[in-house]
Amino acid sequence: MSDKQVYIHYGDYYFRNPQPIKNIEYFTKPKGGLWASRKNGELTWRDWCEVEKFRLDSLNESFEFTLKDGARILTLNDEEQLADLPVLFRERYTNDFSSIYLDFEKLEEQYDAIEVTNISNLYWRLYGWDCNSILIMNPDIVEVISYEKGDI
Q1: Model pLDDT for residues 88-139, shown as the tens digit of each residue
Q2: β-pairing, 113-116 with 73-76?
Q3: Rounded Cα–Cα distance for residues 53 and 64 (Å)
Q4: What angle do CA 142, 140, 41 make, to 5 degrees?
């Protein structure tokens, strides 16, 4: 059995190449890419959808995948890691609440994917990343292992 991390993407039952990464002004996430969560992770997309009663019908279809060997993954789990990343701008609302707008187009030059593994530590800085998740910026690193279409 493989010891590779398994990810799950909801909303499609097959893998289609995502749109290219494009920064969105005043938004902490880019347009494009492929979003997923760890299959057996904590605070996943599925968890968030179920708590928020958001797009529950999208959980009917999914596919699981791993990442190819050599994939360049930026793993974020605490605020200090954001300090040296390329940023479009920072927006401070209060001393405790400020958002960081990463330059995903520049990050894509160095990394194939960005994974947030502890959203609890990064929620206010990456406001809009609602759960632990991975953003695949280079679809060539995806190795699909299963598809599911049907009822929850």
Answers
A1: 887 665 566 678 899 999 999 999 999 999 999 998 889 889 999 999 999 9
A2: parallel
A3: 22
A4: 25
- Give the whole-angstrom CA distance, residue 72 versus residue 68: 10
Query: Residue 46 in 3-state DSSP?
Result: helix
User: Token pair of 123, please?
Assistant: 């929620």
Q: What are phi and psi of 106, to 5 degrees?
A: -75, -40
Helix, strand or coil, per DSSP, at residue 66: strand
Distance of CA 112 to the CA centre of its chain: 12
pLDDT in tens, 33-78: 999 999 999 999 999 999 999 999 989 999 999 999 999 999 999 9
| CA distances from residue 77 to 32, 136, 147 in whole angstroms, order as listed | 22, 17, 29
The sign one gets for the Cα dihedral 3, 44, 76, 33 is positive
Asked if residues 98 and 122 have their Cβ atoms less than 8 Å apart, the reply is no
